[in-house]
Design a protein that fits this description.
The chain is of the alpha+beta class. Helix content is 37%, strand content 17%. Helix 1 packs parallel to helix 9 and helix 6 packs antiparallel against helix 8. The longest helix is centred in the C-terminal third of the chain and has 23 residues.
Length: 629
C-alpha cells in the first residue's frame, strides 16, 4: 500500500486535471494523475482553439501564475489573432487556433517531465472513505490509492449520455465510456447534483470543401503569443474560413426539429446559452436569414476540419443534408457527426473559495463538474484546486484571488457566491475591473503571486522584471521628450486627428484616439536619440500606451476596488448563525445560511441579499468578534 500513497490524487486528465496535477507536483506535493486514457491529456473535445474574448485573458493569467496552458497553446498554435482590436484594450483578447494532436502531445511531454508527478491509467469508481473522512480513491481494477487530498475533474464523464438524433450512447466523449458510481456516492454524502448539456459540431474532410466560395480569415500579420516564456512567435499560419447558412439550410433543420433530442423531450438538461446548437439558433432567431459558420483547420498534418457554429444533435442524415446546402460544403464528406452530451455536475455553492468542498475535507472539485463550460475556465479552476490542495497538505492558508486580481478570481467568486444553473462561460462584462484585468497586465498582476507561492519560476519573474523596466522607461521617455509639428502632423492628418502647431510632449499627443505609440516613436527623432535601450519589445510599448491612455480610468477602478477589498478583508466566522439575527431580513438570512460566505464582500455579492442587510451584518460580525476577544 505504501507504493500507492500520495499527497494528492487528481481524477481526470482533461484541462482542469492537467493543470491541477502540474501545479500540485511543481509545488512539491507527491501527486498521482489518474485518467482513463493517457493518450488524451487535455483533449480538445470541441473546437481546436484556446483563448478568445475573456478566455484569452484567463490563459494569460494561468501562464502568469506558472501554469502550462499558455505554453502548450503557443507550441501547438497554427494561427494567432488578437480579437477586438477595434475596441478598447480591456476587450483585446488573444486567441490561438491549435493543432489538436500537437496540443495533447505537448501536454503529455510537459507532464512527464514534471517532478513529483506519477500516472495511472484506470477509471476511478469511488472515493475511499472511512466514515466522513477521505482516505483516497478506488479504481475499476479494485485498487486503492491513498492520499491526503483528491481533486475531482470529471468533465462530461460522470453518467455521460451522448445523443445523435434518437440514438443514445453512454459515454463521456464519442467513443469513450462514461464514469459511473461517484455521483451516487456523493449524493449519499449529502451533496446536491444536477444535469447539464453541451454539444459539438460535425467534423469534415477538408479535401471535400470548396474554399473558393468562402471568406478567408488570416492570422495576425505580426502575431503575439500567450506566454512570457516558450517558443518564438508563429512565422507560418494556417487560414480559417467563414461561410454562412441560408434559408434552405434553415428549412431542412426546421422540418426536422422534432427529431432533435433538445426539442422532443429526450434531453431535459440545460445547455450553454452563449454557444447554442444550430437547431437552437434557427428556433430562437427565426428572423435571421443566415448564421455565420467558421471553418477551422484541426492541425498542420490533417485534413480534418471543425465546423464552428454548426453544433447539433440532429440525426446523421439530417446533419449531412443540411450541411451540404452551405456554400462551399456542397460535396462535403463527414468524418463524424455532431452530438449532444448530458452529464452530472454539482452546484458550486457547495465549495469554499479554495474549491475545496464544504462537506468533505480534502476533496476539491474543478472544471465542468462545477457547471462551467470551456477549456480555459476548466484549466483555471484546475490550477487553483491544485495549488490549494498542496496548501492543505502543507498546512498553509488557501490562495484566493479577488475580483480585482484576476478573471480567475471573478470566475471562482461568481461560481461559489452566485452558483449557476446553466453552463457558466466567462465574458469581459462579468468583471467590474476589466480595464485593470487586461490581457497585457496578467503577468504584472499575478507572476509575483505565483513566484511567492513557489509556482512561477525565477526565469518568469526575470522576464517580468525586464518587461516592466522597459515599459516604465517608455512611459518616462514619452512624458519627457517632445514631438514637432513637422514630425507629427502628416501622421496625425492620416488618422483624422487635428494637427499640432507647436512642439508638445509625445505623451500628450498619445492620449488622442487612433494615435499609436509605435508610430509616434518612429517619427520622434529626439525620443529615439535619447532612449537608453533601443531594443524595446512591442509588448512593453503597447503596455505603456495603454497605461498613458487610460490612466484616469485605471485610477478610478483602483479606488472602487479598494473599497470592495476592505469588505473582503472582513472575515465571517465559520460558525456564524445568520438565523439568530432577526434584524437581517428573512430572505437574506436564508441566502446567507445556504452559501455561508467567507467574508463580507462575498456576502454582498450573493443574489437576493439586500444592501441594508450587509450593513446590519457588518455590525453583527464586529460585535461577534469583539465578544470573542
Amino acid at each position: 500500500m505504501e507504493s500507492r500513497t500520495y499527497d494528492i490524487i487528481i481524477v481526470g486528465g482533461g484541462h482542469a486535471g492537467c493543470e491541477a496535477a502540474a501545479a500540485a507536483a511543481n509545488l512539491g506535493s507527491k501527486t498521482l494523475l489518474i485518467t482513463m486514457d493517457m493518450t488524451k491529456f487535455a483533449q480538445m473535445s470541441c473546437n481546436p482553439a484556446m483563448g478568445g474574448v475573456a478566455k484569452g485573458q484567463i490563459v494569460r493569467e494561468i501562464d502568469a501564475l506558472g501554469g502550462y496552458s499558455g505554453l502548450v497553446s503557443d507550441y501547438s498554435a497554427v494561427q494567432f489573432r488578437m480579437l477586438n482590436r477595434s475596441k478598447g484594450p480591456a476587450m483585446w483578447s488573444p486567441r490561438t487556433q491549435n493543432d489538436r494532436t500537437l496540443f495533447t502531445l505537448k501536454w503529455r511531454e510537459m507532464l512527464e517531465h514534471t517532478d513529483n508527478l506519477s500516472f495511472w491509467q484506470d477509471s476511478v469508481t469511488s472515493l475511499w472513505m472511512e466514515g466522513d473522512r477521505l482516505k483516497g480513491v478506488e479504481t475499476s481494477l479494485g485498487l486503492r490509492f491513498r492520499s491526503k487530498c483528491v481533486v475531482l475533474t470529471s468533465g462530461t464523464f460522470m453518467n455521460g449520455l451522448i445523443h445523435v438524433g434518437p440514438k443514445m450512447l453512454g459515454g463521456g466523449r464519442m467513443g469513450e465510456k462514461a464514469s459511473t458510481g461517484i455521483t451516487e456516492q456523493l449524493l449519499g454524502l449529502g451533496f446536491e447534483s444536477g444535469r447539464m448539456k453541451t454539444g459539438t459540431p460535425p467534423r469534415m474532410d477538408g479535401r471535400s470543401l470548396d474554399y473558393t466560395k468562402m471568406e478567408v480569415q488570416v492570422g495576425d500579420k505580426d502575431p503575439f503569443k500567450f506566454s512570457f516564456l516558450g517558443p518564438v512567435r508563429l512565422r507560418d499560419q494556417l487560414n480559417c474560413h467563414i461561410t454562412y447558412t441560408d434559408p434552405q439550410v434553415h428549412e431542412v433543420i426546421a422540418e426536422s426539429i422534432d427529431q432533435s433530442p433538445m426539442y422532443n423531450g429526450q434531453i431535459d438538461s440545460v445547455g450553454p446559452r452563449y454557444c447554442p446548437s444550430i437547431e437552437d439558433k434557427i428556433h430562437r432567431f427565426a428572423d435571421k436569414s443566415r448564421h455565420q459558420i467558421f471553418v477551422e483547420p484541426e492541425g498542420w498534418n490533417t485534413h480534418e476540419v471543425y465546423v464552428n457554429g454548426f453544433s447539433t444533435s440532429l440525426p446523421f442524415e439530417v446533419q449531412e443534408k443540411a450541411i451540404r446546402m452551405i456554400s462551399g460544403f456542397e460535396n462535403a464528406v463527414m468524418f463524424r457527426p455532431g452530438y449532444a452530451i448530458e452529464y452530472d455536475y454539482f452546484p458550486p455553492t457547495q465549495l469554499k473559495m479554495s474549491l475545496e468542498t464544504k462537506l468533505v475535507d480534502g476533496l476539491f472539485f474543478a472544471g465542468q463538474i462545477n457547471g462551467t463550460t470551456g477549456y480555459e475556465e476548466a484549466a483555471a479552476q484546475g490550477l487553483m484546486a491544485g495549488i490549494n490542495a498542496h496548501r492543505v497538505v502543507t498546512d498553509q492558508e488557501a490562495l484566493v484571488l479577488t475580483r480585482k486580481d484576476a478573471y480567475i478570481g471573478v470566475l471562482i467568486d461568481d461560481l461559489i457566491t452566485k452558483g449557476t444553473d446553466e453552463p457558466y462561460r466567462m465574458f469581459t462584462s462579468r468583471a467590474e475591473y476589466r480595464i485593470t484585468l487586461r490581457q497585457d497586465s496578467a503577468a504584472e498582476r499575478l507572476t509575483p503571486i505565483g513566484h511567492a507561492i513557489g509556482l512561477a519560476s525565477d526565469e518568469r519573474l526575470r522576464a517580468l522584471t525586464k518587461h516592466t523596466a522597459q515599459r516604465d522607461a517608455v512611459i518616462k521617455a514619452l512624458n519627457k521628450y517632445a514631438i514637432t509639428p513637422e514630425e507629427a502632423n502628416g501622421y496625425l492628418e492620416e488618422q483624422g486627428s487635428k494637427p499640432i502647431n507647436q512642439q508638445v510632449k509625445i505623451a500628450t499627443v498619445l492620449t488622442r484616439p487612433n494615435v499609436a505609440t509605435e508610430e509616434l516613436i518612429k517619427l520622434a527623432d529626439d525620443y529615439v536619440t535619447h532612449m537608453d535601450d533601443k531594443v524595446i519589445s512591442r509588448e512593453a510599448i503597447e503596455s505603456a500606451e495603454i497605461i498613458l491612455k487610460y490612466e484616469g480610468y485605471l485610477r478610478r477602478e483602483n479606488e472602487m476596488a479598494q473599497k470592495m477589498l476592505n469588505m473582503d478583508r472582513m472575515k465571517i466566522p465559520t460558525d456564524f448563525d445568520y438565523r439568530a439575527h432577526a434584524a437581517i431580513s428573512f430572505e437574506s438570512r436564508d441566502k446567507l445560511s445556504q452559501v455561508r460566505p467567507e467574508n463580507l464582500g462575498q456576502a454582498s455579492r450573493i443574489p437576493g441579499v439586500k444592501p441594508v442587510d450587509i450593513s446590519v451584518l457588518m455590525v453583527a460580525i464586529e460585535r461577534s468578534v469583539s465578544h470573542e476577544t
